[in-house]
Write a structure and sequence with these properties.
Helices cover about 30% and strands about 35% of the residues. The protein is an alpha+beta fold. The chain has one domain: Pnp Oxidase, Chain A, CATH 2.30.110.10. β3 (about 60) and β4 form a beta hairpin. α5 (about 120-130) crosses α6. It is elongated, with a radius of gyration of 19 Å. The structure holds flavin mononucleotide and pyridoxal-5'-phosphate. Flavin mononucleotide binds near residues 37, 52, 53, 54 and 55. Keywords: Flavoprotein, FMN, Oxidoreductase, Pyridoxine biosynthesis.
Length: about 210
C-alpha cells in the first residue's frame, strides 16, 4: 500500500469548500510552480468546448475568481454563455478537483484592487495586449508596451476597461484522490441553486 492509499477516504460529512481549502493549502506547501493554476473550460455558442490554463486569484463561499481580458476568446465565450468548468490537477499530490457553475463578473472595485496589486510590468503588459487577437509582428506588441510605459511613466497604469475578473459560483465540486491500481476515491457535491447552502453528496465509482 502506498502513502496516498493509506490516506483516509474523502469525508462525505465535510463541507466542500473546506476540503478545497485543505487541498489547495497542501498544494501551496508542495507544488514548486503555480499551485493556484487551474484549467478553465468555456464553450462556443455552438457548444464546442475550449480550454486554457489560468490562475486562481481569490476564492470563498461565493466562488472562484480569476482575471483576464474581457475581449479574449474566453471573455467573449463567457459573455455568450456564462457557464464554465474549472479543473485543478496537482500531479505530485495525485489529486484533482472539478468545479462547475455559473460565471459572473467581479465588481469594478474588486478588479481595480486586484489590478493595482499586480507588478507594474504586468499591468503595462495587460494594457498593451489585445489578448487572443492576431498579432502580425511581435515588434508591434513591444512598441505598444514602450508607448504605455511612456504614457504612464509618472502615474500608476490604470486598469483597462476590457480587463477584469470572473467568479465561478459552484453548482458542482468533485474531489478525486488517486489510490493504487486506479481504485481511486471520488466524491461529488452538487446543489441545485448557487444560493443553496445545502449540498447533496455522493461517492462515485472511480
Ligand atoms: C499557468 C498559467 C497561468 C495562466 N494564467 C492566466 C490568467 O490568470 N489570466 C489570463 O488571462 N491568462 C492566463 N494564462 C494564459 C492563458 O492560458 C491563455 O493563453 C490566455 O488567457 C488566452 O486565452 P483565450 O484565448 O482562451 O482567451 C495562463 C497560462 C498559464 C500556462
Ligand atoms: C496573460 C496573463 N494574465 C494574467 C495572469 C494572472 O497572473 P498575475 O495576475 O499574477 O500576472 C497570467 C498568469 O500567467 C497571465 O499569463
Amino acid at each position: 500500500m502506498s502513502d496516498h492509499d493509506s490516506a483516509p477516504l474523502i469525508d462525505l460529512s465535510s463541507d466542500p469548500f473546506s476540503i478545497f481549502d485543505a487541498w489547495l493549502h497542501a498544494a501551496e506547501k508542495s507544488e514548486p510552480n503555480d499551485p493556484n493554476a487551474m484549467y478553465l473550460a468555456t464553450s462556443t455558442p455552438q457548444g464546442r468546448p475550449s480550454l486554457r490554463a489560468i490562475l486562481l486569484k481569490g476564492h470563498d463561499r461565493h466562488g472562484f475568481v480569476f482575471y483576464t481580458n474581457l475581449e479574449s476568446r474566453k471573455g467573449r465565450e463567457l459573455a455568450e454563455n456564462p457557464y464554465a468548468a474549472l479543473l485543478f490537477h496537482w500531479k505530485s499530490l495525485r489529486r484533482q478537483i472539478r468545479i462547475e457553475g455559473h460565471v459572473s463578473a467581479v465588481s469594478a472595485a474588486e478588479a481595480d484592487r486586484y489590478f493595482a496589486s499586480r507588478r507594474r510590468e504586468s499591468r503595462i503588459g495587460a494594457i498593451a495586449s489585445d489578448q487572443s487577437r492576431p498579432l502580425a509582428d511581435r515588434a508591434i506588441y513591444e512598441k505598444r508596451i514602450k508607448d504605455a510605459e511612456a504614457l504612464y511613466a509618472a502615474t500608476e497604469p490604470p486598469r483597462p476597461d476590457n480587463w477584469s475578473g470572473f467568479r465561478v459560483n459552484p453548482a458542482l465540486m468533485e474531489f478525486w484522490q488517486d489510490r493504487d491500481f486506479r481504485m481511486h476515491d471520488r466524491a461529488v457535491w452538487t446543489r441545485s441553486s448557487p444560493q443553496d447552502e445545502t449540498w447533496s453528496v455522493t461517492r462515485l465509482y472511480p
